[in-house]
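check this:
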Amino acid sequence: MPVATPAAVRKQIASGAADPLYLLQGEDDVEKAALAAEFAELVEEGLRAFNVERIHAGDMTTGDRLVDGVGSIVASVRTLPMMAPRRVVIVLQAEALLAPKRESEAASRALEELEKLFKAPEPLSALVLVAASLDKRSRMYKLVSRHATVVECGVITDLADAERWVRHRVAAAGAQIEPAAARLLASRAGTDVKRLRGDVDRLLLYALGQKSIAVADVREVAGPAALQDDWAMTNAIEAGEAGEALRQLALMLEAGAPAEKILGQLGWLVRSKLAAARPAQLKPSVEAVFRTDLDLKRSAGDPRVLLERLVVELCAGTRGRAAARRW
């Protein structure tokens, strides 16, 4: 079955239309634990004691224990839900099942039972396997991935995912963060998990001992907003949106992009895009790029100001050239 994102699975849970078998994998233990816990929402709160079961597979290290453990899982999954549309069975440390350390006759029998369950999952149950990264070449992984919805945890696809990631990470550390503060941190770091993790770690250290992390704390610790689209500036120039183009230019500079690299991107835009879209403005646009290149090389002004002037000229055409002369 195809790989799903945590965001897509959350939509399934919210709609109540969950699949019968899931494999949550990846190195992000916080994200896996948070997503696994959300499956309980498939069952009405007052009925969860009867219909939500959590099983730890980490101690299933011998053949006999594996047989008993698999038997418990199968029995729990095959049990009909009580006064609810479905049961939820969450198996933690499922790598012990999918990659057993010792092979024996008893372990082989247990794996055969597990294979039968994977091939014919119970439609009235949601079996959620939570595992560390697995060897994708192994027989059991290939089998479960054919029948399960595989979820790669730790992959952030949008800012809503990033904000949720921040909240879960802070909560896992035993701290609290204001919604606006989590939103600000996510908007600054974007979908870069490495940067998010670093920002949250610094934030937790900075706010150590506080009751709650506020927006002011994030502003003190987090770096500048992350650039989400390397071509957003050139797209805005093509559309003649000077304000947006200048905003994206600022993001690129704050992210550490060299002025020469940005100028190269603008030169590409003139040669590849504006030449066809605005042929009458090709000559002055080329002249503006060459002039900016010369000014940068001889340090004839602040690089940011020089690039801003060029962006305005490219956006506004002849009006931009007239405006540029007033700088």
In short: Residues 259-277 form the longest helix (19 residues). Residues 232-325 form a domain with the Zinc Finger, Delta Prime; domain 3 fold (CATH 1.20.272). The chain has three domains: 3-152, 159-221, 232-325.
